[in-house]
Amino acid sequence: KQWYQRRVRANNISGKNSFKANGLVNKHVVGIKPADKGVVLTTKSKGHLTSTTLSRGGRRTIKTIRAATAGSHYRPDLTDSAIRKASAIIRSQKNKSAAKRRSRKHKN
After folding, report:
1. CA–CA gap between residue 45 and residue 98 (Å, rounded)
2. At what angle do helices 58-66 and 79-93 cross, to 10 degrees?
3. pLDDT tens column, 19-37
């Protein structure tokens, strides 16, 4: 088998080559990408892409994504994929805390 890298299009949440996930041809689009702090939610209305930066915490971000997709009947089929991608981005942006070394008293 010859391996190749598939180009992931913008606003393709799952990264799959399918009509459902394609951000170019669908009338309604949901896109998630990383921002400096938080994520950027992209939707399409009347042919124009609208980007919103969500940076006020993980739970609020997920609640906003759920409200924008399933809550407003925009693209309820992409809700789970959008939340998974946003959660992965938020998780990667957290500070990695170094493991603390505990010092023990030596027995005499």
Report:
1. 44
2. 160
3. 888 888 888 889 999 999 9
Read out DSSP for the chain? Answer: ----PPPPPTT-SS---STTT-TTT-SS-EEEEE-SSSEEEEEEETTEEEEEEE-S-HHHHHHHHHIIIIITTS-GGGHHHHHHHHHHHHHHHSPPPPPPPPP-PPP-
Dig out the tokens for 25 from the structure. 């041809």
- Structure tokens belonging to residue 104: 């023990």
